[in-house]
Every structure is written in C-alpha cells, then in structure tokens.
Specification:
Length: 78
C-alpha cells in the first residue's frame, strides 16, 4: 500500500510540475505565492517526496491562484 501511495504522490508531482512549466513559472515563484512554502517544498511536492494530497486547503487555494488555474483543475490532480 505504501508503494501505491508513493506512486500516486509521484504522479501528482509530475502533473503539478507540468502545470507550473506550462505557465512559465519557477519553483521559487510558486513558493513566493504560497504562504509557508519555499522552493525546496515545491520541489518536494514535484518529486513526490511530499504528497500534494496532504496540502492544506489554504495552500491549494493559493497554489491555484499562483498557477492561474481553477481549484477544480488542481482537485483533479489531488
């Protein structure tokens, strides 16, 4: 079960990275726009070391704003 969860976290991270790159943003730019995040935290989510599914609702709202996408688009990832 742990392997499945890690695989899911990695997949979510890949999708987050794709969204970020499509918008031409750096990890640091995302981190500046999400309270309590830094560049290494964004990188951790993108690698799947941290699971985006465990992010707070507030962080998800700020992340969607930073990415310029609807929360529903992020919800599909999470």
């Amino acid at each position: 079960m742990t392997t499945e969860r890690n695989a899911a976290a990695v997949e979510r991270g890949k999708k987050l990275r794709e969204l970020r790159l499509k918008r031409g943003l750096t990890q640091a730019q995302i981190a500046e726009r999400v309270d309590g995040w830094n560049q290494s935290r964004v990188a951790s989510f993108e690698r799947g070391d941290s699971d985006l599914a465990n992010a707070t609702f507030r962080s998800v709202l700020q992340l969607s704003s930073a990415l310029g996408c609807a929360v529903s688009k992020l919800a599909k990832i999470i």
